[in-house]
Amino acid sequence: MSAFAKFRISELVSGTILDTQVAVQGWVRNKRESKNVVFISLNDGSTIQNLQVVGDPVHLGETLLRKINSGASLTVEGTIKASQGKGQKVELEASQIKVDGEADPEKYPLQPKKHSLEFLREIAHLRPRSQTFGAVFRLRHAMIFATHQFFNERGFFNIHTPIITGSDAEGAGEMFRVSTLDGLKPPLDDEGEIDHSKDFFGKETNLTVSGQLEAEAFAQSMGLVYTFGPTFRAENSNTSRHLAEFWMIEPEMAYYDLNDNMGLAEDFLKYLVDYALKHYADDLEFLNDRGIREEHQKPQHQRQELNLIERLKLVSDYQFERINYTQAIDILKNSKPNKKGKFQFPIDGWGIDLQSEHERYLVEKCFKRPVIIYDYPKDIKAFYMRSNDDGRTVAAMDVLFPIIGEVIGGSQREERMGQLLARMKEMDIPEKDLWWYLDLRRFGSVPHSGFGLGFERLVQFVTGMTNIRDVIPFPRTPGNAEF
Ligand code: 4AD
Ligand code: MG
């Protein structure tokens, strides 16, 4: 219909374009009507801000007005003007409105009022039309874009590692099987076991839990690489920080030791947070206010000390604290909550794995800034991590953030064939499954390191959303794969 130039609302709300005829398309958030004037707030997803459309009810006509309800899609033509009213710089004086798709006001679930996040999760196909989720998913995009920009600026190459994997040796979590065999009548071998040689790939295959091992092959040929892909873990952990399908960013660097690795992790996280603060101030401000309102619903002693923007500044302004595992255990053992029996998992000795309550204590109470813990006991870490000279720790590192706890896990890799084989033996990992991984130690092996950033945990941190299900478009968790 339109003879006018089309604009996205993000291009108009700043007020640089005025007294110009434009066309805008989007979804109705709200309509307010009186005898002489109708106000429609329209959003097209390009920005947190709505465009105020002003119309003359007589000119537009009763039939049309009745079709303009929350959720309907419109094409509006008119003149963009400086706004007389409060709350917006510009408004669109409508000369013509076309209803592209109606929305029955009796049935449209997303009313212009506050809905609970739990309810919005049930309508995950409509929730990106809400202000909160619009902001969350714009920021999610921002973090994807900034990730590629960061690594590109530093000379890294992006590698797509396989999603279906034939090696299940990583041990990062329970895996989802991939098979085309008949589930009721699978072919059996002589011992009565399922005969995987008859399966699609001629062997057992799974969805990947990590692209690391494959990325290592490319680090030892292209030097600096990273993967950014979906990963799958079939753990039955129904927490606010776990998904069965999540995205991971895994850089892998030849000739990096553990210190270089920690340095890169810190630079990367600061870059991401700075990018959000610089380019997505509108959305962050909205989410910050939202967070403050939520906190006020809680009893005083449960409230966060810092608001969202303050927490982001904690990452961008402070150097991360680096302590080794042994120091962390000492601090925790002597901490008030441990002595008073406040930890659900009391700290009684060296060698135990840290729980998120411990990680949060170190970050939020003890150091009041992000913390990197390195040199963990070898018994609680993966086979590929490089053995330290003390014989009991490995060159691992975890980056811990406020509220979220672990956002990054990584290590220097064991590049020495003898040590690697010994660790695999200790952990019952068959050599034949990882022949190609061992080849990398056989031919031109070099010291190297890498880490994995849980992308949704990062987006949780940047948006302040407390449940990980609210930062991925369509979450997959135990018992839930709707949409
Ligand atoms: O610590 P993880 O298991 O490390 C690895 O998989 C290594 N292969 C990474 C590497 O060195 N290349 O997982 C890395 C990160 C965690 O720190 C956490 O942020 C996130 O992935 N993560 C999850 N995020 C959401 N849901 C889950 N179930 C997650 N499990 C791990
Ligand atoms: Mg980990």
How does this structure look, described?
The protein has 483 residues and is an alpha+beta fold. The chain has two domains: 5-112, Nucleic acid-binding proteins (OB fold (Dihydrolipoamide Acetyltransferase, E2P)); 129-174 and 209-470, Bira Bifunctional Protein, Domain 2 (BirA Bifunctional Protein, domain 2, 2-Layer Sandwich). It contains 15 helices and 17 strands. Strand 2 (20-33) and strand 3 form a beta hairpin. The longest helix is centred in the first third of the chain and has 23 residues, at 131-153. The protein is globular and about 85 Å long. Magnesium ion is lined by residues 406, 409.
Overall 3D shape:
globular
Portion in beta strands = 15-25%
Integer average pLDDT: 95
The assembly state of the depicted protein chains is: single chain
Tally of DSSP helical segments: 15
Concise summary:
The protein folds into 2 domains: 5-112, Nucleic acid-binding proteins (OB fold (Dihydrolipoamide Acetyltransferase, E2P), Beta Barrel), CATH 2.40.50.140; 129-174 and 209-470, 2-Layer Sandwich (BirA Bifunctional Protein, domain 2).
Task: Set down the secondary structure blueprint.
Elements: E1 5-7, H1 9-12, E2 20-33, E3 38-43, E4 51-55, H2 57-60, H3 62-67, E5 73-82, E6 90-101, H4 117-122, H5 131-153, E7 157-158, E8 164-165, E9 177-178, E10 205-207, H6 212-222, E11 224-232, E12 245-254, H7 258-279, H8 281-297, H9 308-317, E13 321-324, H10 325-333, H11 336-339, H12 356-367, E14 371-377, E15 393-401, E16 405-412, H13 417-426, H14 435-442, E17 448-454, H15 455-463
Parallel strand pairs: 1-2, 4-6, 7-11, 13-14
Antiparallel strand pairs: 2-3, 2-5, 3-4, 5-6, 8-10, 9-10, 11-12, 12-17, 14-15, 15-16, 16-17
Helix pairs in contact: 5-7, 5-8, 5-15, 7-9
The structure holds 4-amino-1,4-dioxobutan-2-aminium adenosine-5'-monophosphate (4AD) and magnesium ion.
4-amino-1,4-dioxobutan-2-aminium adenosine-5'-monophosphate binds at residues 172, 210, 212, 233, 242-243, 246, 248, 250, 406-410, 450-452, 454, 456-457.
